[in-house]
Amino acid sequence: MADGNDKNVDELLDELLKGKTPEEILGKGGLVKELTKRLVERALEGELTDHLGYEKNAASGRKTGNSRNGKSTKRVKGDSGELELEVPRDRDGSFDPQLVRKRQRRLPGFDEKVIALYARGMTTREIQGHLHELYDVEVSPTLISNVTDTVLEDVKAWQSRPLDAVYPIVYLDAIHVKLRTSGHVQNQAVYLALGVNLEGQKELLGLWVGETEGAKFWLSVLTELRNRGVQDILIACVDGLKGFPDAIESVFPKTQVQLCIVHMIRNSLRYVAWKDRKTLAADLKTIYKAPTLAPAENALDAFCEKWDERFPTVGKLWRQHWTNLSAFFAYPEPIRKVIYTTNAIESINSQLRKVTKKRGAFPNAESVRKVLYLAITKASQRWTRSIHDWVAALNQLSIVFQGRVPV
After folding, report:
1. Cα–Cα distances in Å, from 205 out to 144, 159, 196, 245, 406?
2. pLDDT band at residue 134 under the 50/70/90 scheme
3. Bigger pLDDT: 117 or 393?
4. What is the mean pLDDT of the chain?
5. Label partner for 157 (CA 20 to 30 A): which of 17, 28, 218, 281?
6. pLDDT tens digits, residue range 244-273?
7. Confidence grade of residue 278 (pLDDT, cut at 50, 70, 90)
8. With the C-alpha atoms ordered 69, 75, 77, 81, is the resulting torsion angle positive or negative?
9. Distance CA 257, CA 250 (A)
10. Of the spans 41-55, 106-120, 186-200, which averages the highest pLDDT?
11. What pLDDT score does 77 carry?
């Protein structure tokens, strides 16, 4: 029976498509648009029949107290462009269509497309032009803004959701965006906390918009994480921001702070002449690739002896941060591989920058949250695998941080 139905549908489609050009089928005023209009109107007629309880012109509908009462014209936006629909009405006004509800001006799926374009970093004007070019649909910047504003409730729920009690590793970092404030464009820091849970899965714990990156603001971020249920963080991977370790210790006193090696290398090379960078970077590698703490300290001494005369700031930088660098050497290889760098969060930062770089300046903090939340949601769909060698790392973490990893 299904095969017969399929054959009938195919024959009908062949008849509809016969002799038509691609433009006549898919163009702005083509067959697809007309079919969409007819299907929606047919569905609305079916809804009214179901509401009234009898078919059109059926004798059973007489003296039922309600009946069909003509049609009204309504314009809606959809994937096939703007459609002018004939919406059936009933006499007592109790009919409330579900497919295209009263005061609804966009077909299902239209808002999702706008939000998807916004998530890809397209500006309001770009989305407006895209919809006009592809679908011949005129939408105002205000409409696009209103559609994307519906995301803010999701952002609020996501940002306040309960978190796990224990995160073995949390990466803390920030990116910067341009934000228009009181008529002036200023750089603003967006703070990010990426957790690795007990299953080895990455999870962005939240994002916060602040004026400048600083230890004081990070303190408020860490306090919020605590209030949302985080009781313990084994290792926090951070850059070299002054006061950062103290801010972490004040909220999570048992947490081991590990400075990002890659950040240290980048910061070091800023003070080095271009022609010497490759050689100096190779010498730095002897420090952070040392098998244990003692050889690492010897390598640092040798490095300073060789380079201090020409680039004294580099050796001073490593000695200044040695307390939060040296913890790295106490860990076995599986843990080192995970905390060696903040690449996990930097890869997220890279994706976020892709959607922010086109924008001259965001009009407000809410627009920043909308864009970045949507980009994060899109990126997290690819976080299907746990961190490489996570089982080995978790076993080692259970030994190093005895009693703090839930069994």
Report:
1. 28, 8, 10, 19, 20
2. low
3. 393
4. 79
5. 218
6. 778 888 999 999 888 888 888 888 999 999
7. very high
8. positive
9. 12
10. 186-200
11. 67
Buried b (16+ CB within 10 A) or exposed e, 367-403: bbbbbbbbbbbebeeeeeebbeebeebbebbbebbee
211 close to 203: Cβ distance less than 8 angstroms: no
Closest-CA residue to 261 (of 183, 204, 317)? 317
Q: pTM value?
A: 0.67
If pLDDT is split at 50, 70 and 90, which confidence band does 1 have? very low
In 276-289, which positions are buried (b, 16+ CB within 10 angstroms) versus exposed (e)?
eeeebeeebeebbe
Domain boundaries in the chain?
A: 20-151, 163-400
- Residue showing tokens 């050009």: 21
- Please tell me the number of Cα atoms within 13 Å of 28 on its side-chain side: 9
Residue 223 CA: distances (Å) to CA of 53, 230, 252, 366, 369 = 59, 9, 9, 22, 20
Of all residues in the chain, the percent with pLDDT exceeding 70 is 74
- Count of positions (residues) in the chain: 407
Amino acid 18: pLDDT: 63
Q: Which two tokens stand for residue 44?
A: 């609305």
